[in-house]
Amino acid sequence: MGKGLPFFFRKNSRRRLKKAGGLQSPPSAPPPPPLRSPELIDANHNNNNNNNNSLVVGASTGPGKGKKKAGGAARLWMRFDRLGNSELVECDKSAIIKRVSIPARDLRILGPVFSHSSNILAREKAMVVNLEFIRAIVTAEEVLILDPLCQEVLPFVDQLRQQLPHKTAVNIHRVSQNADTHASTGGQWLPLPEAAEGLQCELPFEFQVLEIALEVVCTYLDSNVADLERDAYPVLDELAMNVSTKNLEHVRSLKSNLTRLLARVQKVRDEIEHLLDDNEDMADLYLTRKWIQNQQSEALVGSGASNSITLAAPHLPRLGSNRSASMVTGSVLDDDDDVEDLEMLLEAYFMQLDGTRNKILSVREYIDDTEDYVNIQLDNQRNELIQLQLILTIASFAIAVDTLIAGMFGMNIPCQLYQIHGIFGYFVGSSSTGCLFLFLLVLGYARWKKLLGS
């Protein structure tokens, strides 16, 4: 008992230490994988000519690698800040949840199961965007894009690099400085619209990202519709001229592609329409506004605490923090229900998607018209076949009568007509003439009854 641990415990511990011998840190408490590696940033920043974009890759060796293999949930993200600086990060779900403060179910929405759905969700500090191939998490200060190296997502990344303004952060910094200045003036608060004047000249950061995402998605859907129209009309015209198995197969695949594309456009359109119908959801998407209110509330709390210590004279009444908060943020709170900017933005792309949907519906109507025309052609051919069959049936009836007469006289029945010389020719001619007259009589009756076309 005093010689140490039992044999089996010592063997397992040696095996565990041997397996973890390549790690630099103890395996009992490995640190979480870093969200950012300064060494890799500097190395790539020196090799890249673009000073605004830097490539950051999560650690692939050491303790982070072991944890990534154990969790198996690390995915590639690209981060854009207000200044347009970008970096690639590789992190798991827990790091993303801690960074943007969203529930775990929102990450499942961005997963592969709901990849074909369209959602724009408002959270306390973030906005979850899942539009077609664009899956991103937008905050008031940055945007995280999932799987940025996909072929469909690259145009969205390029648009973010080109269109993100470089002065938004300066305006936000000016607003924060004004809020701190107001807090230090001993109750001499200025109207907040003067402080936020720099933000009113352009859309907030989150709406700029949302606008770029909607623009890329709408452009992608429009290009698909244009390709569909370019391929659809020649195929449909060819089917109208020649109904064949090959042309019918082309139209079938075309119609299935049209149905899928219409469903995709309808999903994005319905999501935008849902937001336009609910002002509260649109107000929750104003992340910059809520961020400014939080900054002012923190500055107000700090100034209130300092005033409670310095202003200790009994003849000076001290304002409560709630009243001061209402005085400071009153102008912003009055604008909480103002969703005009977002409403105009969503209405523009809603109209564009509605136009795209109308184009698809026009192609579908053309397909339906072509199918009706083809069905009319087939019905006409079927009627012609029925008429031909009726004519052949009448002719068969007349020939059957003539055959009946010939069969009756071919049964060796005693008859005086056999004794007449040369009667065969007259008899055959008269019977054939009678059968032809019978055929014309039945055919005229069918035309009189309009069973045959003229």
Automatic annotation (TrEMBL):
GO terms for molecular function: magnesium ion transmembrane transporter activity. Keywords: Coiled coil, Ion transport, Magnesium, Membrane, Transmembrane, Transmembrane helix, Transport. One of its GO terms (cellular component) is membrane. The chain crosses the membrane at residues 390-411, 423-446. InterPro entries: CorA_TM1_TM2 (IPR045863), MRS2-like (IPR039204). PANTHER family: MAGNESIUM TRANSPORTER MRS2-4-RELATED, RNA SPLICING PROTEIN MRS2, MITOCHONDRIAL. This is Magnesium transporter.
